[in-house]
Structure formats: structure tokens, C-alpha cells
Amino acid sequence: MPKALVTGGAGFLGSHLCERLLADGWEVVAYDSLLTGRRANLAAAEREPAFTFVEHDVTLELPDPGPLDWVLHFASPASPPDYLDHPIETLRVGALGTMRTLELARDRGAGFLLASTSEVYGDPSVHPQVETYWGNVNPVGPRSVYDESKRYAEALTMAYGRTYGMNAKVVRIFNTYGPRMRIDDGRAVPNFVAQSLSGRPMSVYGDGSQTRSLCYVDDLVEGFRRYLDVAEVGPMNLGNPEEVTILHLAELVAEMAEVPKQIEFLPALVDDPTVRCPDITLAGRWLGWRPSVSLRDGLRRTIEWARDAGWGNG
Ligand code: UDP
């Protein structure tokens, strides 16, 4: 069976990916520093004999995971409050962590997948965002610690692919939500869900006219899985093109949670992208992939999970 190292394996996306690979019969080793990941996310994975967890920061020399078929590099703070709280760690994992994991993949003759982000497009002047768009990023603003870190990680991944003939892939992940987001993650969906379930007003930054396009986590993981099976390597968007304003997202959360809509408008964030929507033509062509879970259904499932996880008591 194939064997993968998943860095950031205890994170929101990493843990879902580990479970999916295990379900497909893979052997999986997960590394995570637990800076923003949580061991509890791996409760199901850790019941599988084919799974190993190692608490490790991938910016430091890597422990030996043995032979590998894939290195899937998902380690990084990803929520704006997390990367703003950990700016240097974010830059280190995008630079040193990507370098070390690429070297490991090269050494083992393994394929490599970089979890990149729609943030590489910055505040985009091309809409929806297609992979050939180079982006509009403030290189020195507070968000640059994430945006530029991932842009550098992409450059490194593509250079390793070209220089060493490696099977090195880049996926640009658009906003994703679902079970296992942290209650204090700080992103719009967990904030709005936690606030709604505990009877507090939802915090909308700015006037709420900015847009995002939100993908349910299971759809995204299906896309990752398919991407490993095709020959193509270039940067590829994965996300759900169902675009909504943040104000509308807040309304939908209140509706799905069946609570009265309460909104508190707070100051806009610095360099907050005004629009975001993936062009997923490429993923359709390469993988035959498109998301299948609507925003309403995904929010309903996420809210149900959050209720079970006790978010309403917070
Ligand atoms: N946002 C908001 N209230 C919140 C959290 C986020 O209005 O409590 C806004 C944020 O300003 C951004 C959008 O929702 O315009 C998406 O933010 P999120 O942090 O979820 O993801 P991002 O796309 O910024 O990485």
C-alpha cells in the first residue's frame, strides 16, 4: 500500500486528509508541531494500525519516516488571526518547512504536494481567480507573512520539480469549512457559528460586502485525493465557486442554526481581499472534480457538529 507523510496532520485539513488516506488503505505518518493543530483531531486516525503520529516542527531537522511514496505538506497556521499571532513561525514553515519536506521527498523518490492558498492571489483584480493570474499581494503588510510564505513555497516546489524532475504538485486551496475547525480559529464560519449558537451577535468586519466562496471539507479532500492520481503538477485551484458576501454568509448561518440574526459591525481588517472566487475549470479538466455539497448543506452539517461539540455552551 502507498505510504504518505502528512505534515500538519493534526490540523483541520491535515486530519481529514489522513483519515481519507487510511480509509483508502494507505499507510500514513503525520507530523505536527501542535502550534495550531490538535491531537484530538486524530482520535479516529490513531485507532488505525497503519497510522503513526509524531509531534514535530518541520522547520527543524526531520525525524526519519522510513520509505515514502508521498509527502503532503499541509503544515502552516492558516487562519488570519493564527498567522498574525505567529508571523515568524508562518514564514519559517513556508520557507524552511517546505525546503526540508521537499528534500525528504527528493531523497525518498516520493511525490510532493504543497497545500497552497487562494491568498497567493491577494486582493485580486481578476475575478474569478484563474491559475494563470499572478495576484495582487502587498509584500510587506501584516498578511504578507502568509501570502508571501505560500508564494515562496510555490516557487520552491516548482523549482524542485523542474530542477530534479520531481513529481511536485501545488494545490491552491480556497476558503474551506467543516467539522474540526477550532472554536477560536477566528475565521468567519467558526466565528459566526460559535456566536450564533451561544446567542451572541455575529462579528462582521467592515460592511460585509466582501465576498468569499466556501467549500465543504469533504469536497476538498476528494479533490486532493484525485490530484495524487493524475500526472499533472502545476498550481491548481480547489474550492467551491458558490460566492457569497460575508453579510449573506452571516444570514445563512443564523438561518441554518435557526436563531435570530444578530450582527455587530466591526472595523475592516488591513488588506482584507474584497472578493474571492475560484475558477475551477482546471480541476474539472484534470480531475473531473467539482464540489457536490452546497453552502446550505455544508453549514447545516457544520452547525450540527458544532452543537454536538458543545459550542453552544461557550
Ligand atoms: N470575517 C468577518 N468576521 C469574522 C471573521 C471573518 O467578517 O468574525 C470576514 C473577514 O474580514 C474576511 C472574510 O470574513 O473578509 C473571510 O475571513 P476568514 O478569516 O474566514 O478567511 P480569509 O478568506 O480572510 O482567509
Structural overview:
It is a single chain. The chain has 9 helices and 13 strands. By secondary structure, the chain is α/β, with parallel strands linked by helices. It has 2 domains: 3-174 and 216-238, NAD(P)-binding Rossmann-like Domain (Rossmann fold, 3-Layer(aba) Sandwich); 177-212 and 242-276 and 293-313, UDP-galactose 4-epimerase, domain 1, CATH 3.90.25.10. The strands form 4 sheets. It has a 7-stranded parallel sheet, with helices on both faces. Strands 7-10 form a two-stranded parallel sheet. Helix 1 links the parallel strand 1 and strand 2 (27-32). Helix 1 packs across helix 6 (217-228), helix 5 (188-197) runs parallel beside helix 7 (246-257) and helix 5 (188-197) packs across helix 9. It starts with a strand and ends in a 6-residue tail after the last helix. The mean pLDDT is 98. The site of uridine-5'-diphosphate (UDP) has 13 residues, from helix 5 and strand 8.
Considering DSSP H and I runs of 4 or more, what fraction of the residues is helical?
25-40%
Strand content: 15-25%
CATH homologous superfamily classification of the largest domain: NAD(P)-binding Rossmann-like Domain
Quick check: average pLDDT? 98
Strand arrangement within the widest β-sheet reads: 3-2-1-4-5-6-11
Distance between the termini: 43 Å
Structural class: alpha/beta
CATH class of the largest domain: Alpha Beta
The biggest beta sheet is recorded as: 7 strands, parallel
Number of strands: 13
- Radius of gyration from CA coordinates: 19 Å
Weakly predicted, low-confidence segments? none
CATH fold topology of the largest domain: Rossmann fold
Number of domains: 2
Bound ligands: uridine-5'-diphosphate
